[in-house]
């Protein structure tokens, strides 16, 4: 068990851990895409966090099935079982995948993580959340499935899937006094997740305040702006210049992009190393970071409601502005008339100070 350091004078939070575990369960209803995505993070890289290369962080012990050095089985499950018994603290619980409703599973179960040591019966994801979340110093939901339910929670699903806050309640608080920290994305943007996790770790070390979250429990500094506000195609929207097919570099609102109303920083940040991001590479935004995804944004390739109205309103203004800017651009592409090789000075130079 790791003990907390004594708070320094003026320190606002009465904690500060030298060592912490990250128990990452990806047995929610998911594709493990968030774990795979996080391996591409560089700000910081997950290996830099685990190997102690990020200054000021506690020593981190990561338990993730994809990244685990164990051979699996009981060796991998050991820290999870110890934490459930209250013998491993402190730890951060990371959940990947949506949470099924095991109250409607009939005679079976929807998803499990290991077996009960006495009965051999599968231990459901819900069992682990019930036993780990109340003991966790912080709880982080990785990806849209874990945050809001995602694909598995769409209309017509038989599992009754939901997000972690739906399961634990939006008023849930960890032992560290934190609400659930939601980092949505399908999959999660790698650096968004690692930056958020690093903030939580600095907070655990006693050197940072709690991460600021919005009303949907997302990090404010990452999800405070819309896709449109960071999109390199946004200038075309202002000029009323819209793409008619997916080969165009222009604004894609008319061919299904939801960017103007979606909270996400991917066009600004890119995907890996600042490169990529849906609209940046010709893809439309399908709102995968939003709580209503996917139901409220389907069919994906259809123009969003309001898209025809907004594009119609901006079109005459945009056409006029585009024409005026074209004239100005033409003028700006012309050199001043005094740049010549004739035998006279026409630049307007007037040495009035001379006698």
Automatic annotation (TrEMBL):
Q: Where does [4Fe-4S] cluster 2 bind?
A: 228, 231, 251, 257
Q: Can you tell me which residues bind [3Fe-4S] cluster?
A: 285, 288
Q: Which Gene3D superfamilies match?
A: Cytochrome-c3 hydrogenase, C-terminal domain, NADH:ubiquinone oxidoreductase-like, 20kDa subunit
Q: Name one GO cellular component term.
A: membrane
Question: What processes in GO biological process is this protein linked to?
Answer: anaerobic respiration
- Residues forming the Cytochrome-c3 hydrogenase C-terminal domain are 223-300
Give the NADH:ubiquinone oxidoreductase-like 20kDa subunit domain ranges.
Answer: 31-198
Describe the subunit structure: Heterodimer of a large and a small subunit.
Family of the protein in this entry: Belongs to the [NiFe]/[NiFeSe] hydrogenase small subunit family.
This chain belongs to which protein, by name?
A: Hydrogenase expression protein HypE
Give the organism the record lists.
Answer: Amycolatopsis taiwanensis
